[in-house]
Description:
The chain is of the alpha+beta class and 223 residues long. The protein has helices at 5-18, 24-28, 64-77, 104-112, 116-119, 166-191, 193-203, 206-222; strands at 46-50, 88-102, 125-139, 144-158.
Amino acid sequence: MPRFYPHLLVVLLGLGLGSCKSTEKAVFRAVRSNNSVALGRLPQLEAVVEAGPLNMTEGAHPDDASKLFRQELSFHLAEAQPDTAKYGYAKLLVTQAQVQRTGRALQAFQMLTLMTPSLLGMPLEWYRTNVKAEVQIINAKGEVIGSYSGIGRSKVRVAMYHGYSQTKAARLSDVQALRLALDQIRPQLDADADTLRQQLATSGPLEEIIGQSAHSADSSAVN
């Protein structure tokens, strides 16, 4: 009978992972749940993302940071405008992303007991992600007029029924940590919103700068 244990474990684990929670809604559920900061305080800005170390983890997808930051911009930071003029850039830089997996001894114990405790709700392990991020506000001239940083720490458990699969937990942990870092940055931006608005308006919209550059390039080509 012992020689069949590995096959049984694989089946049990597969069934358990199939019963885990879905991550898509959890990963991108509305950032709007945090209403502690006034919405729409800055002019429309072009999003730029440098995920850096977050792209090196096993969890986050390549476009997760970009999707989350654009959601943050559209709901919390940029005011709704009838036109599409943008007055600069909002640049997200992830400067640090560290991932730890804890509870591996517990996972080994569960394997020895044929995953019985997990069927009763006991987790297999936890993913913990620490993220440091910075958001820069850049005017249409390319000048950094504000820089704000935040730290996010997440903890997501791997479990059957009341948790996530290992792959999904890793992704959710990364994205949650980044979201928490942005939660710290948001009040800092809000405090400087009036000053930033004035500086962005003074520099003018990106279209004017691009238009001038394009006109100069055309003139050079003709000459």
